[in-house]
C-alpha cells in the first residue's frame, strides 16, 4: 500500500520486571520480553511507518517504559498509558505529571481483567473518567464480554466530550454460534455517538485462533457500515497477534480487506482517524 499506515495498537512488555500478572496464565509464546525492534521488520514489510503504543498493565512502570521508548523512537507517534481511574486523587496528580509528556495521547485501564463487569460505571471510576475528559484525552475501552459494550451509551451520556475508542472492535463473537446479533446491535448503538471510534485489531477466533479471510471480511464490512471510514483505524495487537499467525500475517489480512472494502476511503482507516483521534 502506498498510503501512510499507522499501527494504533502495539504492545511492549518485560515480564521479568515483576509486572504483567495476567501473563502468568498466558501461553508461553507471550511470556517473554517484547521490544519495539522485534516488530520492526514486519512493520517495514507492510509499509507501516508509525505506531501507537498501548498499555498492557495497570501500572505506572508500564507507561513510563512506553514513554521512554517513544522519546527515543521517531516511529512511535503516541502512547496510550495508564492512570488509576478508581483512585481519582491519584489519577489527577498523575495526569498533571503526564501533561508535560507530549507522547501521551490517551488513557486505558484493563477493564476486561476486572472481576466486576460494571467496574467502569462505579462512582470512583467515573470520577476518574471525568478527569480524562477534562484533560482532553481519549479513552481506550478494552472488552472481553458483551456486558462491557452495554456501558458505552451510558458513558456517552455522562461524558459528552470524551472520545471513546473501542479496542478490537469490541471483541465480536468470531467463530461462535451465539451473540452475533447482540454484538451488532450494541455496536450500532455505540456508532450512533459521533465521539465513539473503533479499532480493527485483535480480531481472532476463540483462544486467539486465526480467522479466515472470508469470515473476517464480513466483520470488517459491518464495522465499515456502522462507523464509516472516518471512525475506524487499524492496529496489529502485537504481540498477542503472534498466537494467530504473527504480526505480518494477521495485519496484512486486515490491511488487504481495508483496501478491498474501503477503496478510495482507505486512507482514513489507515492513518487519518488515528491522527485525528489521538492528535498525532
From TrEMBL:
<dbReference type="GO" id="GO:0016787">
    <property type="term" value="F:hydrolase activity"/>
</dbReference>
<dbReference type="InterPro" id="IPR006680">
    <property type="entry name" value="Amidohydro-rel"/>
</dbReference>
<protein>
    <submittedName>
        <fullName>Amidohydrolase family protein</fullName>
    </submittedName>
</protein>
<feature type="domain" description="Amidohydrolase-related">
    <location>
        <begin position="6"/>
        <end position="280"/>
    </location>
</feature>
<dbReference type="InterPro" id="IPR052350">
    <property type="entry name" value="Metallo-dep_Lactonases"/>
</dbReference>
<dbReference type="Pfam" id="PF04909">
    <property type="entry name" value="Amidohydro_2"/>
</dbReference>
<dbReference type="InterPro" id="IPR032466">
    <property type="entry name" value="Metal_Hydrolase"/>
</dbReference>
<comment type="similarity">
    <text>Belongs to the metallo-dependent hydrolases superfamily.</text>
</comment>
Amino acid at each position: 500500500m502506498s498510503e501512510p499506515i499507522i499501527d494504533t495498537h502495539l504492545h511492549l512488555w518485560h515480564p521479568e520486571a515483576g509486572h504483567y500478572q495476567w501473563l502468568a496464565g498466558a501461553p508461553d509464546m507471550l511470556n517473554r520480553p517484547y521490544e519495539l525492534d522485534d516488530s520492526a521488520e514486519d512493520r517495514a514489510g507492510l509499509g507501516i511507518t508509525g505506531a501507537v503504543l498501548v498499555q498492557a498493565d495497570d501500572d505506572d512502570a508500564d507507561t513510563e517504559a512506553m514513554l521512554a521508548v517513544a522519546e527515543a523512537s521517531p516511529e512511535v507517534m503516541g502512547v496510550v498509558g495508564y492512570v488509576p481511574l478508581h483512585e481519582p486523587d491519584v489519577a489527577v496528580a498523575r495526569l498533571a505529571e503526564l501533561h508535560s509528556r507530549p507522547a501521551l495521547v490517551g488513557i486505558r485501564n484493563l477493564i476486561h481483567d476486572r472481576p466486576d463487569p460494571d467496574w467502569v460505571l462505579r462512582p470512583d471510576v467515573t470520577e476518574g473518567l471525568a478527569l480524562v475528559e477534562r484533560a482532553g484525552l481519549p479513552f481506550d475501552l478494552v472488552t472481553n464480554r458483551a456486558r462491557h459494550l452495554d456501558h458505552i451509551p451510558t458513558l456517552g451520556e455522562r461524558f459528552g466530550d470524551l472520545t471513546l475508542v473501542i479496542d478490537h472492535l469490541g471483541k465480536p463473537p468470531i467463530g461462535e454460534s451465539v451473540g452475533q446479533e447482540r454484538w451488532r446491535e450494541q455496536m450500532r448503538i455505540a456508532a450512533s455517538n459521533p465521539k465513539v471510534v473503533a479499532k480493527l485489531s485483535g480480531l481472532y477466533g476463540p483462544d486467539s485462533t486465526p480467522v479466515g479471510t472470508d469470515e473476517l471480511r464480513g466483520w470488517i464490512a459491518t464495522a465499515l457500515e456502522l462507523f464509516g471510514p472516518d471512525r475506524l483505524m487499524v492496529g496489529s495487537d502485537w504481540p498477542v497477534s503472534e498466537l494467530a499467525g504473527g504480526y505480518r500475517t494477521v495485519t496484512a489480512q486486515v490491511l488487504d480487506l481495508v483496501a478491498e472494502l474501503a477503496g478510495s476511503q482507505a486512507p482514513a482507516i489507515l492513518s487519518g482517524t488515528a491522527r485525528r483521534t489521538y492528535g498525532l
